[in-house]
Prior knowledge:
Layout: E1 5-8, E2 13-17, E3 28-31, H1 34-42, H2 49-67, H3 73-85, H4 92-103, H5 108-134, E4 142-145, H6 162-169, E5 175-179, H7 186-197, E6 202-205, H8 210-215, E7 221-224, E8 228-230, E9 235-238, H9 241-250, E10 255-258, E11 264-265, H10 282-285, E12 305-308, E13 315-318, E14 321-324
Parallel strand pairs: 4-5, 4-7, 5-6, 7-10, 8-11, 10-13
Antiparallel strand pairs: 1-2, 2-3, 8-9, 9-12, 13-14
Helix pairs in contact: 2-3, 2-4, 2-5, 3-4, 4-5, 5-6
Amino acid sequence: xxxxxxxxxxxxxxxxxxxxxxxxxxxxxxxxxxxxxxxxxxxxxxxxxxxxxxxxxxxxxxxxxxxxxxxxxxxxxxxxxxxxxxxxxxxxxxxxxxxxxxxxxxxxxxxxxxxxxxxxxxxxxxxxxxxxxxxxxxxxxxxxxxxxxxxxxxxxxxxxxxxxxxxxxxxxxxxxxxxxxxxxxxxxxxxxxxxxxxxxxxxxxxxxxxxxxxxxxxxxxxxxxxxxxxxxxxxxxxxxxxxxxxxxxxxxxxxxxxxxxxxxxxxxxxxxxxxxxxxxxxxxxxxxxxxxxxxxxxxxxxxxxxxxxxxxxxxxxxxxxxxxxxxxxxxxxxxx
Length: 336
Ligand code: MRU
C-alpha cells in the first residue's frame, strides 16, 4: 500500500492519501500551501495521531523551503507552526512533532532532514509496537478494534493494528472485528479497507453490537490506539473507546492501548486535563449519508474523543515494550 503520508523532496510537497475518499477511491494529494495543510488535517484527509504529527512536520519543512530566504523567515515559520498546531487539539503527536521541529536548527534543509527523521522513526516505532503486541496474540485469536489505528493512521504499520500485521507475518491467523465507529466511520471506511487489502480476515460491526460479541466470549483481546495518554495512564482515543473499555472490564477481556511514547503527555497529570475536540453537528446528522438523518436544527453532542480511565486498561503496548497500566506513571519521557 502507498504510504499515507510522505515527503516529495524534489517537488517540495507533502503527499497524503485523501482518507475522506476511501474506500471508493485511492487519491493522492500533493500539498504545498499552509491553507491546504490546515484543511487536510481539519477535514481528516490525513488523520490518526501519529500521521498528523508526521504530516505537520513534513508540512512545516515544505513551508520553510518555500520561504527560502524570505524576510521575516523566523516569524513566518513560527506562525505556520502555530496554525498547524491549532488544527486539532487532542492528538498530542501534532504538537510533539512541531516542537521537535522547532527545537533544532531552523534553516530549511535542517527542517527537511528532521521531518524525514520523524517520518522514518514512525515506521520503526510502529514496527516495534507490532512486535511487542504481536507476542500477546495467539494463532486463532479474535481481536476487536475501534476507529482506525492502522497503517492509514501512521506512516506504515499502525499502532493498534501493528500487532495484527506482525502476528500475520509470523504465520498466526488473527481475525479482526472492526467497530464501524460513528460518526465518521473510520472503522468501516478505513480499518475494514486496509485489513482487507492486507489479507487479514475482518468482520465489520456497528458500535452498539460490540457488547453482544463480548458477552458471547467471541473476543480474546481489544486493541485500540491513542490520541493522548496522561501521565497517570488515562487515555484519550476515538469517542466510543470509553464504553468499550467498560464492557471489556465487565466481561474480563484484556484492553490494550497501543501507542508510541510520543503520545504520552507527561505534562498532563490525568485525563480530565486532556482537551477534547468538539466537531461539527453535520458529522452526526448527515455526513456520509445521501439524505439528512436527523431533524433540522437538532442539538448535537459530537466529541471526537473520550477518555478511558487507566483502571480499564490492561497494558500499554509501546515501542519500549508492554507496560502494565499501573506502571505507566513510573515511566519517563527520555528514551531508555
Ligand atoms: O479523528 P481521528 O480519525 O483522527 O481519530 C483517530 C483515533 O482516534 C486513533 O485511534 C488515534 O489517533 C490513534 S491512530 C494510531
